[in-house]
Amino acid sequence: MSTTTAPTATTGTRPVGDLVRAWRERRRLSQMRLALDAGVSARHLSYLETGKARPSREMVERLAERLDVPLRERNTLLLAAGFAPAYPEHRLDDPALDTARRVVGRLLAGHEPYPALAIDRQWTLLAANRAVAPLLGGVSPDLLRPPVNVLRLSLHPAGLAPRIANRAQWRAHLLERLRRQVEVTADATLTALAAELAAYPGVEEAGAGDSRRASAAFAGIAVPLVLRTEGGTLAFLSTTTVFGTPVEVTLAELAVEAFFPADAATAEALRQVADAARPPGGAESG
After folding, report:
1. How confident is the model over 82-121, as pLDDT tens digits?
2. Are strands 225-229 and 232-242 parallel, antiparallel or unpaired?
3. DSSP string for residues in 16-78
4. Which of 48, 70, 87 delimits the end of a domain?
5. Which of 36, 63, 87 is the last residue of a domain?
């Protein structure tokens, strides 16, 4: 049975002033700059950060908005200030998210025969379309046991890494995305994941010709994923889709990663794989 969850206060929660100061410093803002943005005096903000004054609920939400604090952490700020959380959180299979779940399903299915997957804030795989599985041949079963972390699956030596022709470039791209995400969210799990991925042993790039060709085609525009498969070398460009104005924690943290063919050969190869998997007569299996 699905349940609705909401963040709760935990033992040892930091004072709200400490949290505000930490987010301000993370965003590299002075007290004066934040005070001006929030429409309060620098002195009042100083009192809030040092605990000499207690912020109102409106003030907490205003500061969180100016600091671009993620919804999950906004709830933490509110709890630390003694207020109830403002943003609900549901499991993705909760009936309350039926519409959003259907939207994600349509996005994934509509992207076939090209691969696409849905992930949460920590890069945990939530759903994938049928074009993803054929690309995972040779991956260790351990990496495919739920919960599957997409970054670990990509960069682990027992994952896709040995088959990524431009692995150094792709690895640097993913680690930079993760670094920026850690900066924005201050998520401890992501911080630990970044350290784990950075510690994976390096391997020499194979298929250098394929890597150079794909990289040159999109130099300065995008970083392609060049993957060697049994059906040949495939090149992809990726996009990320998020909900525009979510006011629910799970939706705010959900993203769809869609991969598009970077050349005609890749598009044709993916169409052939999809055709081969289609039941005789063109009917889809239920």
Report:
1. 999 999 999 999 999 999 999 999 999 999 999 999 999 9
2. antiparallel
3. HHHHHHHHHHHTT--HHHHHHHHTS-HHHHHHHHHTSS---HHHHHHHHHHTT--HHHHHHHH
4. 87
5. 87
Integer CA distances (angstroms), 229 to 4, 55, 149, 273, in order: 42, 57, 21, 12
User: Which one, of 125, 132, 93, lies nearest residue 109 by Cα?
Assistant: 132
Amino acid (one-letter) located at 209: G
Structure confidence by residue, pLDDT tens digits, 17-67: 999 999 999 999 999 999 999 999 999 999 999 999 999 999 999 999 999
pLDDT in tens, 162-215: 999 999 999 999 999 999 999 999 999 999 999 999 999 875 554 445 555 555
Does pTM surpass 0.70?
Answer: yes
* CA pair distance 73, 97, nearest whole angstrom: 21
Task: Please confirm whether the linkage preceding 113 is cis (ω < 30° from 0).
Answer: yes
Domain housing 77: 4-87
Q: Which two tokens stand for residue 91?
A: 């499991």
CATH number at residue 164: 3.30.450.180
Taking Cα atoms as reference points, which of 170, 153, 154, 234 lies closest to residue 205? 170
Single-letter code of the amino acid located at 192: A
Same domain for 8 and 124: no
